[in-house]
Structures are given as structure tokens and as C-alpha cells.
């Protein structure tokens, strides 16, 4: 549900660390989703429109990541999930994939101190076995370093596929049932969710997709059952605080029913 909680108090030192538009954010009085998920699309097109290599678009997109992370933390969003690299993306040109993995590793190392200062806890979700050893080590080190941070949970989906996540959860439960640790009749939505990569995090209230594509691309298939969707034609490298607030305003104008009728919602108010 949207919330209008007060913005977290911040010292002058913390404000000076922000790269976002502080004035724009401080004036915002609209709804704040608890959990925001973003399908970051359009980096390659952004670069191609400017006659650049696709990796340049991904590098520019990393700046948008920083702005959105800091904006969400500033506004009081509790969880932010970013779709960075899907299992299907392994089929892209080798030089692009290599560049993306290198960029991700550099981002982890470069942003560590900033994430710590801003109280951001990071979790990487997806099939880590497909990642290189050095990158896996960097991810583990960053997760351990930020484990006690509480201002914002940042989940980054890398080598992620929603169908594979559900299959793996089903395999885990099937094994538990075969081993006698769990009776089939005891499998519920709650026990299933415990096996997902996102276990412990609330389901997204709002899913934002950039670049105008009208699809969810195998992203959080279980978790977004009742999420509100917001699609913008803006390419990810051009997505900024103003675009984020437009998405929040759109979210605030929705009537979230969770399968109920409008009449039932009115009766419960």
C-alpha cells in the first residue's frame, strides 16, 4: 500500500553526499510505494541513437541507477529491485556481455562507500553460478558489508529469470517433501515464498518499465501478481528524479483491489 511517511531526517553531511535533485524531492508530498521494482530498459537504444557503442549506454545507465537509489532512499522507499541482467541476456554479443559484467564489478567496488554512508543494504538475486568467480566474490563481500544497513533494501537481479526462480523453489520444496521434512499438504504460498530469491522482502507495489515496451520480460513473475505497472517511453539513461515522481503520482491515482471488487474496497474503507 502507498504510504505518506515522513522523510527520514538527514544531516547536512548526508545531504552533501546526494547526487539527486534535493529541492525537487524535498517538495514532493505524494504517495510513496513501499517496494519499487524497475525494468531498466533502453540503454542500448540510447547509445545507438547517439552513434555510440551499446556499452556506453550501459555506463550512462549506471548514473541513473545511482540517482534512483538515492532518490528512493531519500523519499523513504523501503525496498528497490532493479532488473539488471536476465538469463536471456547471456545470448547477447560476447563483447557486450563481457562489458556488462566488468561494469557491474566496477560499480560494486566504486559504490561500496556510498552505499554504506546511505544505509543501503544490497542483495543480488539470480543464478550466481553463471557469474565469474571474481564477480561472485565482489558480490558476497558487498552483501556482507551492507548486511546491517536498514535505510533501503536494494535488490539487483543479475542472471535472473522469473521462471527459473519458480522452478528452483518448486525443486527445493519437492526435495523437502521426498526427504520427509515437509508434507505436500503443508506447502502454502508462505512456504513457497520462503524459497524465492526475494524471501523476506515485501512484494513490489509498483513496477516501472522504461523504453515503452509493454511486457514484463520474465521479471518477478510470482511477486508482481498484484503490483501496479507503469510504463514510460523514456530510455533508462534519461530516467531521473522527475520521472520517478511521475511514476509515484500515477501509482497514487490507482485503486488497488487485490482481486476484490470496487464495492468491496469501498465497504472496507
TrEMBL record:
Its EC number is 2.5.1.-. Substrate binds at residues 42-46, 54, 58, 90, 92, 209, 215-217. GO terms for biological process: polyprenol biosynthetic process. GO terms for molecular function: ditrans,polycis-polyprenyl diphosphate synthase [(2E,6E)-farnesyl diphosphate specific] activity; magnesium ion binding. The keyword Transferase applies. Its cofactor is Mg(2+). Mg(2+) binds at residues 41, 228. Binds 2 magnesium ions per subunit. The active site is at residues 41, 89. It holds the Pfam family Prenyltransf. Keywords: Magnesium, Metal-binding, Transferase. Homodimer. Belongs to the UPP synthase family. HAMAP family: ISPT. Catalyzes the condensation of isopentenyl diphosphate (IPP) with allylic pyrophosphates generating different type of terpenoids. This is Isoprenyl transferase.
Amino acid at each position: 500500500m502507498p504510504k505518506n511517511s515522513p522523510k527520514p531526517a538527514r544531516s547536512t553531511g548526508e545531504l552533501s553526499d546526494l547526487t539527486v535533485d534535493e529541492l525537487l524531492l524535498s517538495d514532493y508530498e505524494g504517495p510513496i510505494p513501499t517496494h519499487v521494482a524497475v525494468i531498466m530498459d533502453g540503454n542500448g537504444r540510447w547509445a545507438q541513437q547517439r552513434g555510440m557503442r551499446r556499452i556506453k549506454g550501459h555506463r550512462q545507465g549506471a548514473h541513473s541507477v545511482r540517482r534512483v537509489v538515492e532518490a528512493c532512499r531519500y523519499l523513504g522507499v523501503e525496498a528497490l529491485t532493479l532488473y539488471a541482467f536476465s538469463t536471456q541476456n547471456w545470448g547477447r554479443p560476447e563483447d557486450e556481455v563481457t562489458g556488462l559484467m566488468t561494469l557491474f564489478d566496477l560499480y560494486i567496488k566504486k559504490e561500496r562507500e556510498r552505499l554504506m554512508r546511505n544505509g543501503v543494504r544490497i542483495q543480488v538475486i539470480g543464478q550466481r553460478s553463471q557469474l565469474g568467480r571474481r564477480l561472485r566474490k565482489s558480490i558476497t563481500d558487498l552483501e556482507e558489508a551492507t548486511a546491517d544497513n536498514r535505510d533501503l533494501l536494494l535488490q539487483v537481479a543479475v542472471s535472473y529469470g522469473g521462471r527459473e526462480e519458480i522452478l528452483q523453489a518448486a525443486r527445493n520444496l519437492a526435495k523437502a517433501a521426498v526427504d520427509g521434512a515437509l508434507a505436500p499438504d503443508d506447502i502454502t504460498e508462505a512456504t513457497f515464498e520462503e524459497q524465492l530469491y526475494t524471501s523476506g522482502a515485501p512484494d513490489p507495489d509498483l513496477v516501472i518499465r522504461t523504453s515503452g515496451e509493454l511486457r514484463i520480460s520474465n521479471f518477478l513473475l510470482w511477486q508482481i501478481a498484484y503490483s501496479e505497472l507503469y510504463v514510460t517511453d523514456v530510455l533508462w539513461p534519461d530516467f531521473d528524479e522527475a520521472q520517478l515522481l511521475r511514476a509515484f503520482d500515477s501509482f497514487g491515482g490507482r485503486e488497488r483491489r487485490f482481486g476484490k471488487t470496487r464495492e468491496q474496497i469501498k465497504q472496507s474503507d
